[in-house]
Amino acid sequence: MFVPINGLLMANRSKHSVKKKVRSSSSKAKRTVKKVQPGWARLPNEELLECRLCDLDLSLEGTQVERCLDRLHREIKNCGLRLKPHYWISDDWFSPDGIPGIAVPFYMAHPRLRRLERNQMMEVEGGTQTSCMQILRHEAGHAFDTAYRLHRRKKYRELFGKYSTPYPETYKPDPNSKSYVNHLKPWYAQSHPSEDFAETFAVWLKPRSMWRRDYAGWKAIRKLEYVDELMSELKSRPPKFKSRAKVDPVNRLKQTLREHYAERLACYDLSWHEALDSELKKLFPQIAKSRRSEPASNFLQKNRKELTRLVAQWTGECHYNVDQVVREMIARCCEQKLFASVSRAKTLQNTVAMLTAHTMRNLHGGNHRVAL
Q: CA separation (Å) from 72 to 29, 42, 189, 209, 250?
């Protein structure tokens, strides 16, 4: 699952830095053996981008995502449900139609690939334990839908819509809607009936979830209550469809990492560049006014978290969407070689004002569309 916003897919074995304690047969003394890192892990970004996905020879053994998958299986079992989604490494997060399993993106298999992911995409989707669990619960929703063919039920169609509805290339979410749960950003439940169900399932599955309280008075509460009814019905019932197939496993993907990221970045809608460029040039000069001046892109990157927090707090928009505007500002400043003023406080103040205006304009002025 890839959800870019604006206007809103590899030969040494991957070895993780896991230490093993080995007992000497003679002295009984303990010593640590550090696993050897694959050769590509030491390559600079430009060289690593030329590696093919199928040549990386990746494994999830010992990784954070493997621990999260174990946790997901426990959560499902604790609900009295019998489905245990299988998983494999691919190019993105997804659960294929007709297969009750979960694909995990390749970058989750190694810290070096996560650093590359952040360098290319400015973030690592699922990079923290919290976000990883959010995504896995969502994909588990798809797996349950597939395993029990839940989308064929009349009430499912009445509440979520037709599963057979074609996926749009983009969607325009309503940030204020109370007809959908808020789980994955940006308002992913609004993208398609299938995603609406998966998001609702994810909210329901989370341990100690207070969904009855959190969604009281929302239209979305009917969807949550339906999922609760469904799962009670499915307790101890074996899944109807048990395929263990793996779609697009990473060892069959011939793309280079460079080709992979080029495809993903092409999904971004950058049609609002002209207006943004004009205002950026007013805020940041194209010529350094002193030797202490720094590139505007560096200034924005260093203050990115603070800018995002302030504007999200003042506008009420989620951090993710504000951050997308900051990311675009960084890219445009870098391309145009703009410089920041020496006065950090004043520049930060003016940047906050500009970021607020563009965030609100982008979200509510008709340009806010999400690519699927």
A: 38, 32, 20, 15, 22
Q: How many residues does the chain have?
A: 372
Residue 117 CA to residue 59 CA, distance in Å, equals: 17
Residue 87 main-chain phi, psi, to 5 deg = -145, 165
- Dump strand ranges (E) for 53-92: 86-90
Nearest C-alpha neighbor of 117 from the set 32, 2, 196? 2
* Other Cβ atoms closer than 10 A to 364: 13
Q: Is the peptide bond before 186 cis (omega within 30 degrees of 0)?
A: yes
Rounded-to-integer distance, Cα 325 and Cα 361, Å: 11
**85/95 Cα distance (integer angstroms):** 10
Q: What is the pTM of this model?
A: 0.73
- pLDDT tens per residue across span 340-354: 977 888 899 999 999
145's enclosing H/E stretch is helix 129-148
Residue 296 structure tokens? 């505007």
- Category of 98 on φ-ψ map: left (φ > 0), alpha (ψ -120 to 50) or beta: left
Pairing of strands 86-90, 101-105: parallel
Is 50 exceeded by the pLDDT of residue 29? no
d(CA 199, CA 190): 9
> What is the rounded CA–CA span in Å between residue 143 and residue 160?
16
* Cα separation values, 95 from 152, 193, 244, 304, Å: 18, 15, 12, 33
| Residues linked to residue 20 through DSSP beta bridges, in sequence order | 33
Burial class (CB in 10 A: 0-12, 13-18, 19+), 248: middle
* Angle (nearest 5°) at CA 270 between 341 and 303: 30
Nearest-angstrom CA–CA distance, 48 and 114 = 12
Phi, psi of 66 (to 5 degrees): -65, -40
- The tokens describing 223, both together, are 């969807």
Could you report the per-residue pLDDT of 251-301, keeping only the tens digit for each? Answer: 999 999 999 999 988 776 555 566 788 889 989 988 887 777 899 999 999
How distant, in Å, are the alpha carbons of 75, 118, 254 from that of 129?
Answer: 15, 16, 29
Distance CA 55, CA 327 (A): 31
Closest of 354, 336, 337 to residue 346, by C-alpha: 354
